[in-house]
Amino acid sequence: MLAKRVILSVVAAVAVGAFASEQAAAQSYPTRPIKMVLPFPPGGPTDVTARMIAEPLSAAFGQPVVIDNRPGGAGGTIGAKAVATAEADGYTLLYTPPGPLVTAPAIYKNVGYDPVKDFAPVAMILSSPQLLVVNPAVPVKSMQELVAYARSNPGKISYASPGFGTQPHLLGEMFARVTGISIVHVPYRGAAQAVTDLLAGQVQMYFENIPTLLPHVETGKLKALALAGERRHPQLPDVPTTIEIGFPGLQATYWTAVLAPAGTPAAIVGKLNAAINDILRSRETVASLAKLSAIPMIGTPADLAALMATETKIWTELITAAGIKAE
Question: What is the pTM of this model?
């Protein structure tokens, strides 16, 4: 009995010591630059919004938050894997849209990480509904006309995506399935390249977040046909939602989040979450996101985990039903 008490006392002491050590580490964190990995190239929506968070986070912590673009792999999985296998000390973070977390793992046999087991959710950042646009050379003025044109010209419409397995890719697949049309998927290594070819007419159609497409819609270089959200957008009042047009199941929201390697001390995750939420509450950030047609998503690490679980269920069901597999 005495030996058991001694063992329990030692275990308790170790636990208290570990907790105290973690708290001390969190209080002094960070003491050196933080690397924020982006799994897509510069110039796209992920890059733009990541820098909006990195700069004020640097100011809040008094340490540089350095953006590290690591494009490539299956739908952004190279960058995600780099973070999943990094040291869990809070100095390597992942800033990512849904693709590498909820769709790529369902499409590819081995992405090199488990999105649930290998990451510690830190904070949600923003959300913005996806917009369907076409090149003006496509002779249509509405989503219904696009469907009719595609049916009359099977295989003639190609649609871009920022990568195989990304949300725009799956939205295009969903669009084809619910309408019964035949369209061709053309994956790119990021949104910037996809938009460039869309403007040039190399591809005809694209689902992407509003900030990326709005400037080209406003100048008439692209035609906006539908918004895959629940309500119309104030910057695009004449563009109907997919619900209004009769496609209520064709819904998707672009969102971004910050994660750390699994095992990162909870106190450090909590400190990051609090700092990021403070940034998202600021008038400057709210105004900047509004200019990008996005809204802040303030919440806890548990809220991010729940979002990932919900999104994974939705898109995995589509991937399974459509038989989407790695090429």
Answer: 0.79
Q: Are 90 and 260 in contact (CB under 8 A)?
A: yes
* 3-class DSSP state of 322: helix
**pLDDT tens per residue, range 111-139:** 999 999 999 999 999 998 899 999 999 99
Residue 301 identity: P
Superfamily of domain 129-245: Periplasmic binding protein-like II (3.40.190.10)
Report the C-alpha gap between 72 and 49 in whole angstroms: 19
What are the tokens at 274? 């609090």
Q: Give the amino acid at 314.
A: I
In angstroms, the Cα distances linking 76 to 80, 218, 233, 288, 311 are 7, 29, 28, 25, 17
Name residue 64's amino acid.
Answer: P
Class of domain 33-127+254-322: alpha beta
pLDDT band at residue 313, thresholds of 50, 70 and 90? Answer: very high
DSSP output for 12-78: HHHHHHHHHHHHHHHHH--SS-EEEEESS-TTSHHHHHHHHHHHHHHHHHTS-EEEEE---SSSSHH
Q: What residue spans define the domains of the chain? A: 33-127+254-322, 129-245
Same fold? 33-127+254-322, 129-245: yes
